[in-house]
User: What shape does this take?
Amino acid sequence: MTTAVPPLTPNAWLRWGLIRRALRGVPRRAKVLEVGTGQGAMGARLARRFDYLGVELDADAAELAVARIRPAGGRVLVGDALPLTAGRRFDVVCAFEVLEHLEDDAAALAAWIARVERGGRVVLSVPQGPERFGPWDAAVGHLRRYSPQQLGDLLWGAGLEDVRVWTYGFPLGYLLEAVRDRVAARSLEGHTPTAAEGTARSGRWLQPSRLGWATALGPLPFRLLQRPFARTRLGTGLVATARVGPRG
Assistant: This one.
């Protein structure tokens, strides 16, 4: 019996098509590591195609991720991805909405690259638009947002090849972001969380638990509408892929 695929948030649906595009050509059963699995909605999808391993720091989020990903054939570990995967190499390392939480993003990227086989890929997603940093970013532990140029420069600077950066979220992402900022602004009244506190709840906050069909159907026309703008700065998020060269 096929297990149900867990629901994605509307914003995650907007980036899912680009993540699939970034993974195009990766063989079935390739070894994939996801750093920062969250509650496992993306991981459950990847585990259906690849030899998947997810690593998540937050124990509560990881518990749900295990329940979602294990039936799809994947595995989830709780803790820091680097010591838990020491000595192992993967065909693809993914990190969705993770890099913006890390103080030294260049060092983190270099450490992830060290886990990738030569010729393998890194696939990332981050929030777009430094000038758009707002209450939601502060509430969930974001330290920064990226422009397409900044993310591309970070990947090229790490020695990666065939760097590709796409924007998603135009125009629906702006509405979703406005709603999230309003909710976050209320939650911040009287208390500003530390980056660590915000990061811990970022993978659990406003996640859909029911009516997953609604979160899928609602963004569907916008997933198509955003495509012509993938090479512009119009949108609220970025998906990037790059290849580890022969000296990676």
Remarks:
- The chain is about 40% helix and 20% strand.
- The mean pLDDT is 90.
- Residues 172-187 form the longest helix (16 residues).
- Strands lie at 31-35, 51-56, 75-78, 90-96, 116-127, 161-168, 237-243.
